[in-house]
Amino acid sequence: MKSITPLRAALAGAALLIGAWPAAAETLVKIGFASPLSGPQAHYGKDNENAARLAVDELNARKLQVGGQPVRFQLLAEDDQADPRIGTQVAQRFVDSGVKAVLGHFNSGVSIPAARIYAAAGVPQLSVSTNPAYTRQGYRTAFRLVGSDSQVGAALGHFAVQTLKAASIVVIDDRTAYGQGIADEFAKAVQASGGKIARREYTNDKASDFSAILTAVKPLRPQVIFYGGADAQAAPMAKQMKRLGLDARLLGGDMLQTPTFLSLAGDSAGGHFAGIPGGQLNDRPAGKAFRQRYQARFKQDVVRLGPQFYDGMMMVAAAMQQAGSVEPARFMPALTKLSYAGVSTDFSFDAKGDLNKAAVTISEVKNGQWTTRAVMQ
């Protein structure tokens, strides 16, 4: 029998101890996510959540380390119901839960009041809300992942006058912070381009019958009707325009350029326009690859702003790695200075938290599909 010396026994024992030594424990990093996950805007919200979860899962698969410490991200998803009151309650729950960053909210009317809660807690908020007021409140925690209404509305206003040569333009909005905000910016740009707003009308974000409004504006013979609101209302408006014999182009913001508008409007969708902040996914190699991963995972196409939520999560992780910390006070300065090539666009922020450079893509419905008509800077 082979004898075991004291030294050999000691080395064997040490090897056993080393083999049994636990790996460094992961740091759990909570990230808040909020969008409307129920109601008529749930298709936007679910798209946003899918993309955010895809980013979290990809980061966790990489076994990411921050400051030499393994981290695992956990997405806390909440339905804010596109309601400012619910949204502020969600914001407070996120803060109480110890989230390190928030992806959301979707609606400007929710993001604007929620921003105060995140600012008081020092938690960065990365939102796709477009109303200019979101980043004009003076909160250094607010970051906008898309162009603002000032940029999108202005591009659409110039397009209506300079490209479509519309002499009679009607503006309708749903009185939400988003709808009214983008309609205001559109109207300003029309006037700045030498055009004229023939009439301004108002509805709400639950309406589906616009016959009275459209009948009232028909004598004005509008060439363009701008709608500030969502696809669920724009689609029946397009149908009713056709039924009433209104020979006008419907224009709107990013909430119109969706598969939902196409399916709900049917053969009434053709010839209408939408302006979205940023470029087209398929124009960017990383964007095209993202779309393929998204489709493979969720068995559906991207709806609208999910890619920006994906990019937002990736930027939070990149800023944490640069700062070597998951604490907002440490990584937020890195986020402020970050230059990041995302799947949706190239990101860098100005002092207010807005994008330094935001392209606007204007698309037209042709042959039942959204087709790029122009990209404006």
UniProtKB/TrEMBL annotation:
Lineage: superkingdom: Bacteria
UniProt signal peptide: 1-25
Record keywords, A-Z: Amino-acid transport, Signal, Transport
An example Gene Ontology biological process: amino acid transport
InterPro entries cross-referenced by the UniProt entry: Leu-bd (IPR028081), Leu_Ile_Val-bd (IPR000709), Peripla_BP_I (IPR028082)
One Pfam family, short name: Peripla_BP_6
Domain Leucine-binding protein: 29-368
Similarity annotation: Belongs to the leucine-binding protein family.
Protein name (database record): Branched-chain amino acid ABC transporter substrate-binding protein
Species name: Chromobacterium rhizoryzae
